[in-house]
Amino acid sequence: MVLPKPEKTKKSPKSEQLNLVETIDSAKKIKRKRFWLVTALLLTIGSSLVFWLYYTLTRLAVTKELPHFSSSAPSPAFDQITTRLIALDQNSWSIYLKSTNPPIVWSKNFPSPTDQEVNTMVKNLRSTPAKADGLVGRLLPSGAVVHEINDLASDHVQATSLITVPGQELLLVIKVAGSSDLDSSQNRLSQLAQTLYWALMANSN
Q1: Domain that holds residue 193
Q2: Torsion over CA of 199, 201, 204 and 205, rounded to 10 degrees?
């Protein structure tokens, strides 16, 4: 007995169309997933790069600012200037300097005055007439207004001065104690006041 051959089931066009649509949808989903994955990856890398650039540029900016900041604090220069000018003087020197621009307080062998003592010195100096031929003022430029009180004795010389220029006020006290050629010490005092003045002006804003 011969059995009949099984008939092959033919896929309908609708079924093939559905399969094609599902295949296309799956491909679209895969592409969409890849797209969002790549987008997220790029955003992550981009944001990391932005933060890295910001951090690097910030550090560079701070590094560039540091030398300027150091140069605007001229205390080491004051030490060098003072040492160079009074190295050959046999007397004892004490110096106090306070400026408003830049705000600096510097001293050498000078006991630190209190705020009240500083205010009293400034008040007393302002009450005296300005003069350009004193120990401090005689070598300074004509644009500087100098009020100074000088104490000249056989064993010491002290010049207390208030120097004012536009945007700057400088309190400068220089005392020379001793009796070794005080006339030469007075000349050095004037030179020191002039040099400190210009060093400060070079660092003012």
Answers
A1: 75-203
A2: -140
